[in-house]
Design goal:
Dimethylsulfoxide Reductase, domain 2; Phosphorylase Kinase, domain 1; about 400 residues; about 35% helix; alpha/beta; four-stranded parallel β-sheet; globular
Length: about 400
């Protein structure tokens, strides 16, 4: 007799949006995945990654047991065998090469599962290695570094107040598909539609005709990796045309004269050929940002995963400051999270700040950021012989 279908509710583990899932289960097998319409964060939204969870779960190539290499081949093993192998081989490696002979690599889902998030720091402290790698360094670490240096906390990421925003400039992001990465917007499609219905405007800067670009009022194609020149052109215009209006942020903003000097050489007319967007468009966008009471710039993965990712991430927040839209209604605001929101708790100026570059990778000399070495250094740290080589 076939057991009746049941429904279970979970969250998607693939990104920080943590969209709610409604799973239909028959005979202990997932037969269908839908978005949970009652989830307060996602309101029924699902991206293709979440829909593909069933295929991932049922994939015949999925690892379901530990594997141990024997005679040059990986073979299935029990957990008891796996732990015994670790106990046999790991201590001699640490004894011979020190704790840095061990490397750890965290995949994306680790950050979105409570158990793994709580357990891994304890494992890292026990190992004592500085060779820690994760998917973050090929994702949003540039944003974490820029906001850490600018606002004093790795997690102080301001996001658009879309429900009150009247002009949204989106660069290197596709919230129609991501639901607002590092933003998490329940029903972004509906909120974007409401923004335009009240007379607001959405402009997208992207080298691809994304799903968000398709519903925007304007889409301007940019040369891949050239976002920094576009953003410098916007910042230059704000100083050049005396559009800067810091408002109450003036008492908190340091280095304004140095910033003006730094962007002086990047007039829109000088950078247009580099970024592929004409000078008139850059100047018009800068004017609109500064003349619209509720407006902001939002950038995401496309502004991070490039040569000037940290500079792009910083410039986005700089522009929101110069236009008077940081931490203002309808602008780019700091979320008031239940925990760890350093910039919405405690007395102003009481944060510890951030430090990076405390050590460097052995081979390339890449600096540590957020306690990690860039994941792109992992292969050379394994392959290059010598003291400190990763052996486990």
């Amino acid at each position: 007799m076939t057991s009746p279908a049941t429904t279970a509710h979970r969250i998607c583990p693939f990104c920080e949006a943590c969209c709610g899932l409604e799973l239909e289960i028959e005979a202990q097998q997932v037969v269908r995945i839908r978005g949970d319409a009652n989830d307060v964060f996602s309101a029924g939204f699902l991206c293709p990654k979440a829909i593909g969870l069933k295929d991932l779960h049922d994939d015949p190539d999925r690892l379901r047991t530990p594997l141990i290499k024997r005679d040059g081949q990986f073979v299935e093993a029990s957990w008891e065998e796996a732990y015994a192998e670790i106990e046999r081989r790991l201590p001699p490696i640490i004894a011979a090469g020190g704790p840095n002979a061990v490397g750890t690599v965290l995949g994306n889902p680790v950050s979105h599962k409570m158990g793994l998030s709580l357990y891994f720091p304890r494992l890292a402290r026990a190992l004592g290695t500085r060779n820690m790698f994760s998917a973050s360094s090929v994702d949003q670490v540039p944003k974490m570094l820029s906001v850490g240096l600018m606002f004093g906390s790795w997690l102080a990421v301001p996001v658009p107040d879309i429900e009150r925003c009247d002009f949204l400039l989106v660069i290197g992001a596709n919230p129609m598909v991501s639901n607002g990465s590092l933003w998490t917007v329940p029903d972004f499609r509906g909120k974007a539609k409401a923004l335009r219905a009240r007379g607001g405007k959405i402009v997208v800067i992207d080298p691809r005709r994304t799903e968000t670009a398709a519903i925007a009022d304007e889409h301007h194609f940019i040369r891949p990796g050239a976002d920094v020149f576009f953003l410098l052109g916007i910042a230059h215009t704000m100083f050049d045309e005396q559009l800067v209006r810091l408002g109450r942020l003036g008492q908190h903003a340091a280095g304004l004269a140095e910033l003006e000097a730094a962007v002086r050489a990047y007039a829109p007319e000088a950078v247009a050929a580099r970024c592929g967007i004409d000078a008139a468009t850059m100047r018009a966008l800068a004017r609109t940002l500064c003349s619209t009471q509720r407006a902001c710039v939002y950038g995401r993965i496309g502004t991070c995963t490039q040569q000037f990712g940290t500079l792009c991430s910083w410039l986005i927040d700089v522009i929101n400051v110069l236009s008077g839209h940081l931490d203002e209604e309808g602008g780019s605001m700091f979320p008031k999270a239940a925990a760890f929101a350093a910039n919405t708790r405690g007395a102003p100026g009481s944060g510890r700040g951030v430090i990076s570059g405390r050590y460097r990778s052995r081979v390339s000399g890449a600096p540590e950021v957020v306690g990690e070495i860039p994941l792109t250094c992992l292969a050379e740290e394994i392959d290059t012989p010598g003291p400190g080589q990763i052996r486990a």
